[in-house]
C-alpha cells in the first residue's frame, strides 16, 4: 500500500477529527466570513507525483483555496436560489461519502429502499402521492428526465417508441410555455428536440404567468397534434405561478403532456397561506423539485416525479446480463440517466427525519417574511424600487434613477465587495435589475437588516 494511504488509514480517526474541526470552524464562523469574494486567480499547481497525505493536504487547502470561497452556506447569501445545509443534512452528506453506496440497484443493500421511502416523503410534501420519482443531481436533470418521458409519450401517441426509433421519428415537437427556465431549453437541446421547438405563449399583463386563454389558442392551432406544455410553479425573477388547475383542465380538449417546473416554488405547498399557488400540482404528468434549494440539503440533490414510470423505464432502460431486469419496482439504474449514482437521498432523509414537515415549513415562512422585510427596507430610501411585487421569496429590484446595465452591474459589484451580502443580476421586462433570493435556514431579521444596510449604502454611493 502507498505509504501515504497506509499512514492515513492508521491515523483515520484523528484525521476525521481534524476535518470535523475544520468544518466546524467554517460553519460557526459563517457570520463573520465575507459572503462573496471577487474571484482572483489562485495560480496553477503541479500534479503531485507522490502526495503529502491528508493532514498536510487539508492544511494546504485551508491556506490556498478555502479563503477564496464564498460564504454561500451562510444566511446573507441571496444569489441564485441557494439554500444552506441544515445540520442534519450535513451529517447525512458526510455519511453518504463514508458509506459510499452506489444507489443504482437494490441487489446488495437497503440504500435504494431508503431512497424510495425518501422520495415518497418528498412527494407527500407537495401532494404528489400518485407519482413515482427518483433523485437526480439538480433541477436541470430533473427537467431533463421529465421531458425525456414526455418525448416518449409523444411517440406513444404516434404508435412509436422514440427510445428505440430515435427522436427523428417524431418530426417537429411543439413545446409551449410562458416563461420557461433556461434549463428547459438546455434539456430540449440534449434530448434532440431542440431549443427552437419552444413556442413562447403570451403571459398575463405585468406577469410572468402564462395567459391560459392564449395557451388554449396555441393548442387549438395545433389541430389535435400532441404537444408538451411546460408550466411554472415559481419563475426565476418574480416567483410567479401559472394556473396549474386551469392548464390541466385543457387536457379535456387537447392532447399534451404537462410538465411543471417547481424547482423551488413547489415549496409554497408547505406554507398554508401560500399553498393555493401550487393547487393542481398533483395533476401534472411530471414535476421538477430541487432540494438543494429550499429543502436546504447540500449540493447536489433534486427529485423528478412522473405518473408514467413505464415510459420512464422505456427511456432509461439499462439492459445487461449482470443487471436485474426492470420488473416490479425497477432499480434506479432503469429510471435516471446515471448508472453510477451516490445516495443523494440520505441528506434529505436526515433533514426530514430531524425536522419534519413543521421544521421545513418554518424555514419557508421565515424566508418569505425576510423577503418582504428586505423589500420594505430597500424601497424606503427612494434610491431603489421593486420591478415586481414580492410574491414569495425573491426580491427583484433596481435603481430608482438611471437603471442602466452599467450602473446596475456597478451596484451588484459594490454589494459583493462589501462582504455583507450577495445578490445576482437579471433583466426583467427589459429592465436591468438585481435578485435577492431567500432560501437559507439560518437567515434572521438581523441578517436582513445587515443586507439591506449594505445594499442601500451601495446605492447611495452611486447616486
UniProtKB/TrEMBL annotation:
Its cofactor is pyridoxal 5'-phosphate. Keywords: Aminotransferase, Decarboxylase, Lyase, Pyridoxal phosphate, Transferase. GO terms for molecular function: transaminase activity. It holds the Pfam family Pyridoxal_deC. It comes from the Bacteria. This is Aspartate aminotransferase family protein.
Amino acid at each position: 500500500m502507498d505509504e501515504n494511504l497506509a499512514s492515513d488509514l492508521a491515523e483515520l480517526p484523528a484525521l476525521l477529527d481534524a476535518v470535523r474541526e475544520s468544518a466546524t470552524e467554517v460553519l460557526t464562523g459563517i457570520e463573520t466570513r465575507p459572503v462573496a469574494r471577487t474571484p482572483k486567480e489562485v495560480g496553477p499547481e503541479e500534479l503531485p507525483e507522490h502526495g503529502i497525505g491528508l493532514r498536510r493536504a487539508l492544511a494546504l487547502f485551508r491556506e490556498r483555496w478555502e479563503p477564496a470561497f464564498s460564504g454561500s452556506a451562510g444566511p446573507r447569501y441571496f444569489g441564485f436560489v441557494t439554500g444552506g445545509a441544515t445540520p442534519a443534512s450535513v451529517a447525512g452528506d458526510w455519511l453518504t461519502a463514508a458509506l459510499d453506496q452506489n444507489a443504482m440497484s437494490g441487489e446488495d443493500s437497503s440504500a435504494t429502499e431508503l431512497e424510495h421511502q425518501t422520495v415518497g416523503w418528498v412527494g407527500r410534501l407537495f401532494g404528489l402521492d400518485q407519482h413515482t420519482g427518483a433523485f437526480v443531481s439538480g433541477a436541470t436533470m430533473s427537467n431533463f428526465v421529465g421531458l425525456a418521458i414526455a418525448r416518449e409519450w409523444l411517440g406513444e401517441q404516434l404508435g412509436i417508441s422514440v427510445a428505440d426509433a430515435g427522436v427523428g421519428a417524431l418530426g417537429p415537437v411543439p413545446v409551449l410555455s410562458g416563461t420557461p427556465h433556461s434549463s428547459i431549453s438546455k434539456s430540449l437541446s440534449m434530448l434532440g428536440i431542440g431549443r427552437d421547438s419552444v413556442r413562447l405563449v403570451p403571459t398575463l399583463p405585468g406577469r410572468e404567468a402564462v395567459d391560459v386563454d392564449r395557451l388554449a389558442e396555441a393548442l387549438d392551432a395545433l389541430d389535435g397534434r400532441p404537444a408538451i406544455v411546460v408550466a411554472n410553479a415559481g419563475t426565476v425573477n418574480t416567483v410567479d405561478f401559472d394556473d396549474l388547475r386551469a392548464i390541466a383542465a385543457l387536457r379535456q380538449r387537447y392532447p399534451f403532456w404537462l410538465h411543471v417546473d417547481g424547482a423551488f416554488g413547489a415549496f409554497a405547498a408547505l406554507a398554508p397561506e401560500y399553498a393555493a399557488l401550487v393547487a393542481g400540482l398533483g395533476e401534472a404528468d411530471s414535476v421538477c423539485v430541487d432540494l438543494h434549494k429550499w429543502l436546504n440539503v447540500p449540493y447536489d440533490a433534486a427529485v423528478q416525479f412522473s405518473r408514467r414510470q413505464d415510459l420512464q423505464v422505456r427511456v432509461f432502460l439499462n439492459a445487461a446480463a449482470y443487471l436485474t431486469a426492470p420488473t416490479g419496482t425497477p432499480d434506479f439504474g432503469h429510471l435516471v440517466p446515471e448508472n453510477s449514482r451516490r445516495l443523494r437521498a440520505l441528506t434529505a432523509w436526515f433533514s426530514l427525519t430531524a425536522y419534519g414537515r413543521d421544521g421545513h415549513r418554518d424555514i419557508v415562512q421565515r424566508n418569505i417574511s425576510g423577503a418582504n422585510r428586505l423589500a420594505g427596507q430597500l424601497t424606503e430610501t427612494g434610491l431603489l424600487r421593486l420591478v415586481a411585487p414580492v410574491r414569495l421569496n425573491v426580491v427583484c429590484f433596481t435603481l430608482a434613477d438611471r437603471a442602466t446595465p452599467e450602473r446596475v452591474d456597478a451596484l451588484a459589484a459594490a454589494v459583493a465587495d462589501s462582504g455583507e451580502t450577495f445578490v445576482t443580476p437579471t433583466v426583467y421586462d427589459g429592465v436591468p435589475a438585481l435578485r435577492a433570493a431567500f432560501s437559507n435556514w439560518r437567515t434572521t431579521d438581523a441578517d436582513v437588516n445587515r443586507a439591506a444596510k449594505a445594499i442601500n449604502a451601495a446605492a447611495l454611493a452611486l447616486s
